[in-house]
Amino acid sequence: MCAEHLTRSFTEVAETLLHEMVHLYNLQHDIKDTSRSGTYHNAKYKASAEQHGLSVKKSDKYGWSDTSLDDEAKASINSIDMDFELYRESPQKVGKSATKQSTRKYVCPICGCIVRATKEVHIICYDCEIEFVEEAS
Question: What separation in angstroms does the CA of 126 have from each of 83, 92, 110?
Fold first, then answer.
């Protein structure tokens, strides 16, 4: 599950985790629960999912893949004290980095050609016959 999906409700996250845990259970018990490179969920998946707390509906494209918590699992999830949230904050850039970059970026002011160098250099764009300008970082 990608971190961006952790912004969903706790119940929705639990549904997804339980769905994937059923796949893991089936893998460990040599139960082939999908076909079409793992996209189509077959009747074996449905049976395992229903044994482990999921209600399952059939999707035309993905088989028995539309899962949600059954009433018993939902009651169990809802009984958990929810004093926390699951999410990942987006990193925020504040000011310049404390470490100095070791490379410099030079750009031709006419054609936009880019050259990178690890030290200060004076170079000319052969096509435009003009000196490259160091881009501020």
Answer: 63, 39, 11
Exposed (0-12), middle (13-18) or buried (19+): which is 113, by Cβ within 10 Å? middle
φ, ψ dihedrals at 28, nearest 5°: -70, -25
pLDDT in tens, 64-97: 999 999 999 999 888 876 655 655 565 665 555 5
Among residues 21, 10, 16, 11, which one has the least CA distance to residue 52? 21
- Which pTM value belongs to this model? 0.60
Stretch (H or E) spanning 106:
strand 104-107
Does residue 50 contact residue 18 with C-beta atoms inside 8 Å?
A: no
Count CB neighbours of 69 within 10 A: 20
> Whose CA is closest to 39, among 59, 13, 14?
59
pLDDT digits (tens, 9 = 90+) for 3-33: 777 778 888 888 999 999 999 999 999 999 9
Tens digit of pLDDT for each residue in 117-135? 999 899 999 999 999 999 8
In the three-class reduction of DSSP (H, G, I as helix; E, B as strand; rest coil), residue 62 is classed as coil
